[in-house]
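Title: Comparing notes on inverse folding

I've been comparing how different people in this forum approach sequence design from structure. To keep things fair, I'm posting one structure and asking everyone to reply with a full sequence. Here's the target:
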């Protein structure tokens, strides 16, 4: 009985072990012989590319818009057999797209310009505001353009990145000059060679001028003597309502342009007077400022928290003044000038208003001009 009992116990233990081993082999085999995962279908882009070839698309590059024709897109395509699916499909040649994108680079890429600020005898002798550059990101642009074509989109925007200059105005001067506060411009087309010469001599006296915080600017003080010894030539000027020849004819082009820049910079105007009669060089009428040493001046005040810098430049037949300083939050808007009460004789009136907003406060000032009829000449050389 005891032997039979032992035999039965051993038998059952062996039987159970065999079942466990067999079960493990069975399940292991089952795991290994599961059906393979179904293949995932890939996007067939042939139809989308065909749509792009049919319609073409617009390519935006900065401010430029170029039309990419379907014929050109077609020249970028090639057929092939997909290794994974065995299907025939169409793809775009990456190198050809890159060549197309790079064709925009010469028109898009601009190197940044560092600021320059050099002083000599309390005057800025060399000045240049910094300018940001830009660069076409070819890799990102190629990817975007290819994806837009493969998705049958009607436009693509290439990636243009800004490049900041290493030196800005804040880094090259200690006077707080870092912002363009205002710019004025005038057109002197039709001027005689003598008048243009006088404009060039006059504008040079104000280029690089520094005005301290709280300081009052006087055009005549900076201008100094106006005669042949100062380099001026004889030209027509308006004096007592008449046209006469004097040295320095054309200097009012300088004062008018500087007045306009001071207006846009939001600086308080202390003294300003319009011309006696309308002059085409100072169009639009009502936005001019005449000067005559010892008689009429142009004055304004630097009420900003830092120095301001006056810069003059000439581009063709246009004169421009720029005033740089430190922005204090003021916003300037100009409405006009408007001409009214115009007479057949040429007499007229004009006005404009300037609104300055700062710290939620708003001030408005009106500038009026009254012009008499031009002198009775056979031909007014200033018209």
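Reply #1:
Here's my take.
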């Amino acid at each position: 009985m005891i032997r039979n009992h032992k035999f039965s116990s051993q038998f059952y233990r062996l039987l159970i072990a065999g079942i466990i081993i067999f079960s493990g082999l069975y399940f292991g085999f089952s795991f290994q012989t599961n059906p393979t995962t179904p293949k995932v279908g890939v996007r067939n882009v042939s139809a989308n590319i065909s749509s792009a070839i049919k319609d073409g698309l617009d390519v935006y590059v900065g401010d430029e818009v170029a039309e990419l024709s379907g014929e050109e897109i077609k020249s970028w395509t090639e057929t092939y057999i997909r290794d994974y699916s065995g299907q025939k499909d169409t793809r775009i040649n990456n190198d050809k797209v890159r060549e197309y994108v790079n064709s925009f680079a010469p028109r898009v890429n601009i190197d940044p310009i560092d600021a320059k600020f050099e002083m000599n005898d309390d005057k800025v002798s060399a000045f240049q505001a910094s300018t940001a550059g830009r660069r076409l990101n070819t890799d990102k642009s190629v990817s975007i353009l290819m994806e837009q074509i493969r998705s049958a989109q009607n436009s693509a925007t290439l990636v243009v990145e800004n490049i900041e200059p290493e030196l800005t105005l804040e880094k090259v001067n200690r006077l707080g000059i870092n912002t363009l506060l205002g710019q004025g411009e005038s057109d002197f087309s039709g001027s005689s060679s003598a008048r243009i010469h006088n404009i060039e001599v006059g504008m040079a006296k104000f280029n690089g001028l520094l005005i301290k915080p709280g300081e009052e600017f006087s055009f005549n003080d900076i201008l100094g003597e106006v005669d042949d010894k100062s380099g001026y030539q004889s030209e027509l000027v308006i004096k007592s309502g008449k046209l006469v020849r004097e040295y320095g004819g054309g200097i009012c082009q300088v004062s008018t342009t500087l007045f306009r820049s001071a207006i846009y910079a939001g600086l308080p105007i202390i003294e300003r007077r319009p011309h006696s009669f309308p002059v085409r060089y100072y169009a639009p009428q009502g936005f001019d400022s005449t000067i005559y040493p010892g008689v009429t001046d142009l004055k304004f005040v630097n009420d900003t928290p830092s120095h301001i810098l006056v810069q003059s430049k000439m581009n063709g037949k246009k004169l421009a003044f720029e005033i740089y300083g430190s922005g204090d939050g003021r916003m300037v808007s100009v409405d006009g000038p408007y001409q009214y009460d115009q007479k057949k004789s040429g007499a007229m009136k004009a006005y404009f208003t300037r609104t300055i907003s700062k710290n939620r406060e708003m001030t408005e000032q009106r500038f009026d001009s009254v012009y008499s009829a031009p002198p009775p000449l056979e031909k007014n050389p200033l018209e």
